[in-house]
Design goal:
With 152 residues, the protein is α+β, with helices and mostly antiparallel strands. The protein has helices at residues 9-20, 25-35, 39-48, 68-72, 75-86, 90-94, 144-149; strands at residues 60-65, 105-106, 112-117, 129-131, 134-136. The chain folds into 2 domains: 5-48; 60-149, Glutaredoxin (3-Layer(aba) Sandwich). The termini are far apart.
Length: 152
Amino acid sequence: YPVSLRSASLPLLHLFQEHFGFISDEAIAWIAARLGLEKIHILELVTFYPMFRREPAGRHHIRVCRTLSCAMAGSYELKRAFCKSAGIDPHVVDHPHVGAGPHIHTSPDGKYSIEFVECLASCGSAPVCMVNDDFHEHVTPDRAQELLARYA
């Protein structure tokens, strides 16, 4: 087993997110203290991996890839279609306040939330998204409502 406890960072982050739904500043501080690391080392992991959230999300969380391949294949239109289907104001999503930090937008009923994320590592099947932990490829805006209906 590695001498450094750093290797326990990811499993602990997964446990915190599974239990609390997101990774708070307090969680980062707690993990860093327990593992004898600087908080920045834990924050680096949280901000690098798209599966970790820094704020609460809806019961069904949608992540839409926005990197080049997905953007060229229609991920921006896909995100707007998800917003429309979930009852999230797409204008707010497209025009966040400067300096507002991560942008998870949640439907009024708390059922859905959506965010753009960096690469989901399936550029050849763009546009791609995740709903909760389920990965979806070649998702067109026309399929957004149908896809959300599976999680209703």
